[in-house]
């Protein structure tokens, strides 16, 4: 999102996937378990088999990509990764006030999580202008929040700064009060997939942190997030962060009027699997505009979900990649969601506008 929408009920049948009670994962490499095979050049008696071996080579060539993925995974396992101490909940301070003259979104006043609207949000020219303004503000706030990331800073301090920047611009921080969420931004550190609640924990040298900003300006939501590096981050984490951003870019690159939504998940999965990363299926992108969360739901994994993009439509793409398991656990606060095995996760998010020939990234700073 601000909040990545959660698949609380199973989506339509997904291509080549398996499911569990919390999430599911699948990768091409699971299909390939053979070890590399080599042939010596045919000589003497073996020369008669030259043509046969060539034919055999052609028959197995579709496996080459899968075996390459397997080798990439094995190579990655050789990278030394120092597991950090498990994330622990800090003290959560009281929610910050918002001036009375700032317009509020309609979901305030209830701690119930709003339903995801079934309506796709397609805008006229006036709506597009307002979406651009909201998204530009969100991007600017996120960029400034990222400059605060350094060892010893608390996520609560980041929340306070984000809150002030948003209300100073005459906007409302969309997460605040959404389904009872107590803060103005999501801060997800290390193994936290998403929806981390800012608290008193200080960032540590070598951490990674996703900051997820959504603003409500003139009746429209702008939604974006980015994973930042804190201090001296090791190579394994830097690569995870880099590839996650690349996955988002590749997903956006194929978006345009008439394109199938399912292509996004296919493209993201293909790129993630090259590096041996898992793509989290439980949390998805979503339509955004006058309503915080609506259809279409954007799956980041391979899927057969129907539907095509329409010119003037706005939605988010926000893949979460993990080094290990894509299964997740949620803390008793009902928001903070971590990888089940404690492995690191990274996420990037943009709000985009579908055009006739492509997609405009509205939250690009």
From TrEMBL:
Keywords: Aminopeptidase, Hydrolase, Metal-binding, Protease, Transit peptide
Listed GO MF terms: initiator methionyl aminopeptidase activity; metal ion binding; metalloaminopeptidase activity
Record flagged with keyword Translocase: no
Catalytic activity: Release of N-terminal amino acids, preferentially methionine, from peptides and arylamides
Pro residues composition bias: residue spans: 96-106
EC number: 3.4.11.18
Requisite cofactors: Co(2+); Zn(2+); Mn(2+); Fe(2+)
Annotated Pfam families: Peptidase_M24
GO cellular component: chloroplast
Region: Disordered, residue numbers: 1-29, 83-106
Residues binding a divalent metal cation 2, per UniProt: 223, 286, 318, 349
Record field: compositional bias (Basic residues): 83-92
InterPro entries: Creatinase/aminopeptidase-like, Pept_M24, Pept_M24_MAP, Pept_M24A_MAP1
Positions contributing to substrate binding: 195, 293
Keyword Transit peptide listed: yes
Family matches, as CDD domains: MetAP1 (cd01086)
CC cofactor note: Binds 2 divalent metal cations per subunit. Has a high-affinity and a low affinity metal-binding site. The true nature of the physiological cofactor is under debate. The enzyme is active with cobalt, zinc, manganese or divalent iron ions. Most likely, methionine aminopeptidases function as mononuclear Fe(2+)-metalloproteases under physiological conditions, and the catalytically relevant metal-binding site has been assigned to the histidine-containing high-affinity site.
Gene3D superfamilies associated with the record: Creatinase/methionine aminopeptidase superfamily
Residue ranges, compositional bias (Low complexity): 15-29
UniProt-listed HAMAP family: MetAP_1
Function: Cotranslationally removes the N-terminal methionine from nascent proteins. The N-terminal methionine is often cleaved when the second residue in the primary sequence is small and uncharged (Met-Ala-, Cys, Gly, Pro, Ser, Thr, or Val).
Protein name from the UniProt record: Methionine aminopeptidase
Native species: Populus deltoides (Eastern poplar)
């Amino acid at each position: 999102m601000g909040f990545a929408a959660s698949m609380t009920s199973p989506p339509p049948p997904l291509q080549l996937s398996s499911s569990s009670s919390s999430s599911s994962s699948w990768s091409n490499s699971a299909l390939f378990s053979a070890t590399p095979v080599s042939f010596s050049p045919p000589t003497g008696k073996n020369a008669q088999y030259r043509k046969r071996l060539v034919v055999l080579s052609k028959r197995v060539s579709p496996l080459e990509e899968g075996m390459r993925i397997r080798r990439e995974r094995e190579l990655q396992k050789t990278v030394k990764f120092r597991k950090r101490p498990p994330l622990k909940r800090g003290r959560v301070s009281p929610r910050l006030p918002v001036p009375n003259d700032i317009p509020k979104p309609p979901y305030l006043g209830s701690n119930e999580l709003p339903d995801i609207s079934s309506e796709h949000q397609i805008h006229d020219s006036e709506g597009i202008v307002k979406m651009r303004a909201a998204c530009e503000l969100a991007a600017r706030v996120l960029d400034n929040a990222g400059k605060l990331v350094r060892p010893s800073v608390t996520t609560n301090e980041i929340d306070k700064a984000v809150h002030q920047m948003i209300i100073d611009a005459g906007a409302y921080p969309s997460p605040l009060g959404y389904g009872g969420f107590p803060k103005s931004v999501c801060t997800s550190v290390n193994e936290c997939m998403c929806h981390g609640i800012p608290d008193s924990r200080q960032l540590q040298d070598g951490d990674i942190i996703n900051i997820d900003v959504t603003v409500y300006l003139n009746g429209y939501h702008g939604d974006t997030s980015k994973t930042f590096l804190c201090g001296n981050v090791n190579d394994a984490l830097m690569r995870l962060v880099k590839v996650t951003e690349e996955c988002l870019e590749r997903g956006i690159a194929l978006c345009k009027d008439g394109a199938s939504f399912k292509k996004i998940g296919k493209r993201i999965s293909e790129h993630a699997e090259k590096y041996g990363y898992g793509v989290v299926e439980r949390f998805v992108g979503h339509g955004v505009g006058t309503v915080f969360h609506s259809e279409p739901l954007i799956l980041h994994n391979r899927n057969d979900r129907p539907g095509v993009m329409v010119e003037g439509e706005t939605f988010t793409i926000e893949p979460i990649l993990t080094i290990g398991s894509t299964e997740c656990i949620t803390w008793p606060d009902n928001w903070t969601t971590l990888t089940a095995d404690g492995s690191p996760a990274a996420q990037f998010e943009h709000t985009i506008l579908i055009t006739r020939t492509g997609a405009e990234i509205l939250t690009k700073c």
